[in-house]
Amino acid sequence: MIRVAAVADVHFGIDSAGRLRPHLEHLGGQADLLLVAGDLTKCGDPEEAAVLADELSELPVPVLAVLGNHDYHAGREHEVAKHLEGSGVRVLEGEAETVTVDGTTVGVAGVKGFGGGFAGASGTEFGEPEMKAFMAHTREVARRLEDALSSLQADVRVALMHYSPVEQTLRGERLEIYPFLGSYLLAEAVDRAGADLALHGHAHGGTEKGVTPGGVHVRNVAQPVIKHAYNVYSVG
Amino acid sequence: MTTDEPDDYLIGRVQEALARDPRVNEMNVEIAVAGQELFISGTVPTEERRKAISLVVAELLPDRDIHNQVTVVAVSEPTEAEELS
């Protein structure tokens, strides 16, 4: 079994120093890798990323992450990623990475994801250019997730994203904002390529557990939902 | 002018300010209006941001009674793993 630790939406700011690291003390004994599902920073300021990078440095397990919408706000997402990579955090965007734990390979495919909505109530690439661009972005990141997942040759495969692939893990959020919280296209990508676990954040008011139409476990690990420094899932 | 502002538009202005203001950058709070009183609830990651919510809203609406019911997310280490099969 591979023990996957995961968290999202830590929203680190300059005021966050010391909020996470003390709770990572036993991470090495509890998990084989740590995945962070986006919204690493408050507003995508590289200084905020530097604070988080310090907290995640020299951990006893590999750390992989995707960015979230907050990490794009300042338009400096590449610098945010660079700070984290400098601390050994692998930041994925349409990419896949494989780590080996005691002879078992774990593959992680990561994308930010995007919104659009869910079955029967989704936006479509129709109408104004802005609407077409919105849904084209979702379709593009879903395609990149599918390609990244399909490329993995691993015993255990995990899809890591910020936006939700399913509605179930949004329950608790206002129904009106579901289209801003995720898209069924992400679930379709996961189901087509296959995975053992799909992780996301973004929905602070949602619930933890869901499943894709194809039967892949989905977990919303937004910190306000799990109320822990991270949750651990044994997979494989 | 603002005293006659419909509650829905007032809530929209507060929501936009809390998302955009760099002291807060928070979209995960609920805003409700009852007469002259404005209630804000939800969670934020730090005490500094909880306090900043009061400041930002007071600057925007100095004549309203603001009730900041936002709490800081409590974080602890997990005690067990979930086994997925």
Provide a descriptive summary of the structure in words.
The complex is a heterodimer of chains A (236) and B (85). By secondary structure, chain A is α/β, with parallel strands linked by helices. The model of chain A has no long low-confidence stretch (mean pLDDT 97). Chain A has one domain: Purple Acid Phosphatase, chain A, domain 2. Chain A has 7 helices and 11 strands. A 6-stranded mixed β-sheet of chain A has the order 5-6-7-8-10-9, with helices on one face. Chain A has a 5-stranded mixed β-sheet with strand order 4-3-2-1-11. The termini of chain A are close together. The radius of gyration of chain A is 16 Å and the shape is globular. Chain B has 85 residues and is α/β, with parallel strands linked by helices. Chain B has one domain: 2-Layer Sandwich (Histidine-containing Protein, Chain: A). The longest helix of chain B is centred in the N-terminal third of the chain and has 14 residues, at 7-20. The chains are: A alpha/beta (236), B alpha/beta (85). Strand 11 of chain A pairs parallel with strand 5 of chain B, so a sheet runs across the interface.
